[in-house]
Amino acid sequence: MTDYAFRLFVAGQSERSSAAESNLRALAETRLPGGYEMEVVDVVDRPGLAEEQRILATPTVVRLRPLPQLRVVGDLSDPPRVANALDLPGESQEFREEKEAGGA
């Protein structure tokens, strides 16, 4: 079992869905190389799971493990912010500088 598990909710095969999946994979490979699982759920195909998880917008990523569950909505195109919101290890220099400047 890996330490981190994510479930990405998307709606169909849109450009935004593909971007979110690519962005999450790139971030996970950078921050958690080989130490994560990722499931992509199309809410059109599995509306019950989306309702169960109370997904109100797509794309939404839910960090399932480790607990507590955390979630981020959007195309995940800002890696430092997404990593911070999902509490991933290895804070980037860019985000540290932004936080120190009072921007995050």
UniProtKB/TrEMBL annotation:
Taxonomic superkingdom: Bacteria
Domain KaiB residue range list: 7-88
Coiled-coil features, chain-numbered ranges: none
UniProt biased composition (Basic and acidic residues): 93-104
Ranges where the record places region Disordered: 85-104
Gene3D superfamilies per record: Glutaredoxin (3.40.30.10)
InterPro entries: KaiB-like (IPR039022), KaiB_domain (IPR011649), Thioredoxin-like_sf (IPR036249)
Biological process per Gene Ontology, one example term: rhythmic process
Name of the molecule in the record: Circadian clock protein KaiB
